[in-house]
Automatic annotation (TrEMBL):
The keyword Signal applies. Pfam families: Chitin_bind_4. This is Putative cuticle protein. Residues 1-20 form the signal peptide. It comes from Bombyx mori. Keywords: Cuticle, Signal. GO terms for molecular function: structural constituent of cuticle. InterPro entries: Insect_cuticle (IPR000618). PROSITE patterns: CHIT_BIND_RR_2 (PS51155).
């Protein structure tokens, strides 16, 4: 009887280890957080996070509202875990000056959105 109990304990330990292993198949990743807010001016903030640590955050700001040169400036980033297990973050912006990768993240407090909304999305 003791041998059977030991085998069952070892089997349960094996199952626990296998179930706690990181997801290898990226197609099995699930969205665990998803937020989207837009105000009456057209400014927006969205973000999401997946079970395989893919994160994206983006903010769109209406510039020159109601003017002929009205446009949306976009600031954001995405991050993921590379094959070496290291976190990678890429910041980006899209403004009148074009699309840029690697700019410092814009101060999110000047977006025109309530700070509480921005804080809830940033975490």
């Amino acid at each position: 009887m003791t041998g059977t109990v030991l085998k069952i304990v070892i089997l349960h330990i094996f199952i626990a280890v296998v179930n706690s292993a990181p997801i290898k198949d990226e197609s099995l990743a699930e969205i665990i957080e998803n937020n989207y807010t837009i105000d009456v001016k057209g400014n927006y903030v969205f973000s999401f996070k997946t079970t395989n640590d893919l994160i994206r955050y983006e903010e769109g700001i209406v510039v020159n509202s109601g003017e002929p040169n009205e446009h949306i400036e976009v600031y954001g980033y995405y991050s993921y875990i590379n094959d070496a297990g290291e976190p990678v973050r890429v910041d980006y912006s899209a403004t009148e000056e074009g699309y840029k990768i690697g700019d410092e993240q814009k101060d999110m407090t000047i977006s025109g959105l309530p700070q509480s909304v921005v804080a809830s999305l940033v975490g």
